Amino acid sequence: MIKPHSSLAAALTALCLAASAAFAQTPTPAPSASSTPSVENKDVIPEIKTRGKLIVGCKYDVRLFGLNNPMTHRVEGFDADLGRAMAKALLGDEKKIELVETVSANRIPFLTENKVDIVISTMTITEDRKKQIDMSDVYYMAGQSLLVPKGSPIHSVKDLDGKIVTTVQGSTSEKNIQAAAPNAKFNLLKSYSECFTALGNKQADAMTTDDIILLGFKATAPDKYELVGGQFTQEPYGIGVRKGHEDLLKFVNDELAKMKADGRWKALYDKHLKPVSGQSIEPPQ
Amino acid sequence: MPSSDSEVRTISDSSSGTNPPLVLPAPRRRGPLVTPNRVFNLLGWLILALIVVFLVIPAARHGNWEPFGDANTWHYLWDTPDENGKPQGGLVYTLYVGIAACLISTAVGFVFALGRSSNNRFFHGFCSVYIELMRALPSYLIIFYVFIGLPKFASFYNSVVWPGAAAWARAHLGAGLGGAVEFLVEKFSYVVNFAFQWQPPGFAIMGLSLYTSAVMAEIFRAGILSIEKGQLEAAYSLGLKPHHTIINIILPQALRRMVPAIVSQLITLIKDTSLASIIALQELTRAGKQFYEFYLEPGKPPIVLETLFVVAAIYFVICYALSIISQRLEMKQGR
Amino acid sequence: MLTLPALANLLTPLLAADAGDYFGKSVIENLPLFLHGIGMTLTISFWAALISFVVGLVVALLRVTPSGGLKIVAVAFTEFFRNTPLLVQVYAFYFGLPKLGVNLHLQLGPFEVSDSFAAGTLGLGLYTGAYVAEALRAGLLAVPKGQTEAARSLGLSLLQTLRLVVVPQAVRLVLPPLGNLYSAMLKNSAILSAVGVADLMYQADYVNNRSFRTFEIFSAVALFYLMLTLPLGFLVNWLENKFNPLRARRLRLRGARV
Q: Nearest residue of B to residue C180 by CA position?
């Protein structure tokens, strides 16, 4: 029987050892740097064709982009349909797709570890992410905004001092709002739906994230909420592809360009986003 | 009423996860602590009636229970099928993860229990440290650790350890042995990557097993040590070999004594599966949450509490049934 | 044999690349945040412990009273809270209660209690309270019935019987399991970060989302939790030995650490 004190000390030693042995503590980029054989450029499209389905990572809880409908068991939204369009272009049938739920914390690991072929999940193109994965051209241009109950004294980011703002912990929106409104109080939760529930419960004075996501929530109770503050950031959404899968990246970019040109992008926009944004826009370039 | 007047005696005297079992060896006794008093009794029923009339009935009447009359809702909570009807989560995943973690941690726990009883100082120390460490940490932290740590480990393994070790083996060990090392390293990468590909359920099972195996090890140890020493001595004096003694004499009895504790650990596991909802495992809690979040439609009242109540009720039915089973087994042995 | 340069090569990614960078940097730099987190973990555990003890005591007394109605209420309470996940309960308090018009946000003079704190404390307190009730009840029932009957027949009132005969004995039986429960409660408080309670776990997540130095952050957090839970474990052991040397010895023989 070993004494509790020595067991504590031993535990700590073991922890530290396991620490140094097991995990990479690299600052970004992740260790999937180009020095390794597994990241060399590799044609992945033939593999997908033999497999017969495109595996797409998608959010399941974001209105308008990817929402799992309990009634139809279908993931609905712009991102999901974009994935289906990609599957159709690549494999000839939009049913040849396997959707996998991704959340913000696991979408990049899913790509780097080959669990999914592409990730379409309201992912903003940032320099940090580009170091770890490849990102396609912009498929939607969003911007961060504020959702408040109607009649709220908050009209822009400047009015947030001392007010409670809710958003998702670790999201781009959270970092942006902390920079834009340093004196606000933050109520950081795990998903946008939770944030919206908290806003509805008056547990926060405002909710912030990309305007189009906010519009989706606003549409559930149009007379109770309003968007204020305009777009105070630009959030270009892109499709994530694993580094080294250059043929897939090229295919995705070509297909996006085609969709933007031949009206399919517009059809998707009209179907999912226009009903809540109320305006027609041209595809982002 | 399984938990009214007979007290549970678990052999796991450990605080286990979010469900710490009681440790008091309370003697069975009949009747209340104090003699019945009619006025007091009447008052009690009155308070119960007030609670039912003013809390339960209004809640049931004013809640929006309409969505729960729809079979689709129950499909969603049951296994969250995708378009092709393939299960993606729900109660099925809760049970799957809970039971898988229970089986794995029973096996792993057995190994750790043996290690802790071993005379080898290294094994003893390692297993003791593991057990004490895991039991002192929040299971949520462990699950979280696996969730964000394992992908890093996988990519570290794939990009640094595997190629590094393979190159080193080729350069230093020659073709034969080096090739063998390379082969092993490559095969281990399948294990690492399989764990990764299997997520989120794989991660949840791993995280829960890490913690529960420590508790199980303690259950095993307590079970084995609960066998009277006389039996061991008798077996030895009859000329049985140590491994025969363990397999034929101690384990059958110990296992029987441990079953109730293992079942109550399964209850803890099924409740703790809900923690994995935070790391994106689509199990019952998360299915329920996504259900009420989906149900935000213009002009309809939100069904937050209703859904959470239904989810809680499902957990309750399962866990309560298991706890009754556990107590029955216990009583059977008590005889 | 693994040569030293080869080992160094393997470990390069572990050691910081830049000068001025070192293992544990993000923890040291954000130490105030982590300390706040520990403070919050302790605060919320303190209040939850208080709530759970009061609730547990009341429910335990209801369980041993001779009133059928109250007994049903008490049994329903303990069984429901013990057999449903803490997370679901906390969600119900945080996201659900406001839908009934219950506002948990409190402003008591200069003291502000946020919703998440109130919902978290309540959830953790009631959940633990159900276990505390069972522990206390077991303690009360463990006192042989003959003693209470003897006390009553000697002319002691019900309260006197409880105060002079039952409680002093029950306390000794109950303290060690209570210590276990509160140690488990401290660990369970990590769950409350899911509703935005700024405890240790929450701060770890927060720092991790900024620095992505996952490993060092969560190792440090594990260390912090060990620093909180291990002393409690020792305290429980000590209580065991102090109040119940016989039982402690028996358990030691059975090999279980309580």
A: B15
CATH superfamily of A39-141+236-277: Periplasmic binding protein-like II (3.40.190.10)
pTM of the model: 0.83
Contact list in A for residue C233 (CB cut-off 8 A) is 4
Q: Which chains touch C (3 or more CB pairs under 8 A)?
A: A, B
List the beta bridge partners of residue A208: A146
Chain B hits for C75, CB-CB cut-off 8 Å, are: 1, 3-4
The highest-level CATH class for domain B70-78+89-334 is mainly alpha
Q: Is the pLDDT of residue C167 over 70?
A: yes
Q: Is the pLDDT of residue B307 over 60?
A: yes
CA distance C149 to C127: 33
Which tokens is C145 given? 């019935």
Going by the DSSP 8-state scheme, the letter that residue B265 receives in this structure is H
Are the Cβ atoms of C78 and B3 closer than 8 angstroms?
yes
Beta pairing, strands A206-210 & A185-189:
unpaired
Work out the burial of residue B325: count CB atoms within 10 Å of its CB; fewer than 13 is exposed, 13-18 middle, 19 or more buried.
middle
pLDDT surpassing 80 at residue A138: yes
Supply the CATH classification number for the domain A144-228: 3.40.190.10
Domain ranges in chain B?
70-78+89-334
- pLDDT surpasses 70 at C8: no
Asked if residues A155 and A52 have their Cβ atoms less than 8 Å apart, the reply is no
User: Considering only A69-83, A118-132, B292-306, which range has the smallest mean pLDDT?
Assistant: B292-306
More confident position, A227 or B8: A227
Q: How far apart are CA A128 and CA C199, in angstroms?
A: 28
- Closest-CA residue to A203 (of A218, A178, A186, A220): A186
Could B151 and A109 be called an inter-chain contact, meaning their C-beta atoms sit closer than 8 Å? yes
For chain C, give every domain's residue range. Answer: 29-242
> Two tokens at B271?
């409740």
Q: Is the pLDDT of residue C5 over 70?
A: no
Structure token pair of residue C231: 């002393």
Alpha-carbon gap: B134 to the closest alpha carbon of chain A (Å) = 10
Contact B80 A68 (CB under 8 A): yes
Task: DSSP letter for C88, please.
Answer: H
- Supply B255's token pair: 């296992």
* CB-based contact, C253 to chain A, within 8 Å: no
For residue A197, the chain C residues in CB contact (below 8 A) are: 95
Strand A164-168 vs strand A185-189: parallel, antiparallel, or unpaired? Answer: parallel
Which DSSP letter does residue A26 get?
A: P
Query: How high does pLDDT run on average in chain B?
Result: 81
Angstrom CA distances, C85 to B92, C124, C132, stand at 16, 11, 16
Q: What is the DSSP string of C111-178?
A: EEE-HHHHHHHHHHHHHHHHHHHHHHHHHHHHS-HHHHHHHHHTT--HHHIIIIIIHHHHHHHHHHHH
What is the spatial distance between Cα C129 and Cα C137, in angstroms, rounded to a whole number? 12
- ipTM computed for the complex: 0.83
| pLDDT tens figures, B197-241 | 777 888 899 899 999 999 999 998 888 878 877 888 888 888 888
Query: Does the distance separating the beta carbons of C215 and A202 come in below 8 Å?
Result: no
| Token pair listed for C115 | 């919703």
pLDDT, tens digit, 9 for 90 and up, residues A144-196: 999 999 999 999 998 999 899 999 988 888 889 988 899 999 889 988 889 99
Answer yes or no: do C68 and B304 touch at CB < 8 A.
Answer: no
- Whether C226 and B164 lie within 8 Å, measured CB to CB: no
Q: What is the CB neighbour count within 10 angstroms for residue B291?
A: 23
Q: What sign for the dihedral angle of Cα A147, A152, A156, A161? A: negative
Domain spanning C29-242: CATH superfamily? MetI-like (1.10.3720.10)
> Which among A16, A188, A201 has CB closest to C196?
A188
CB A236 within 8 Å of CB A138: yes
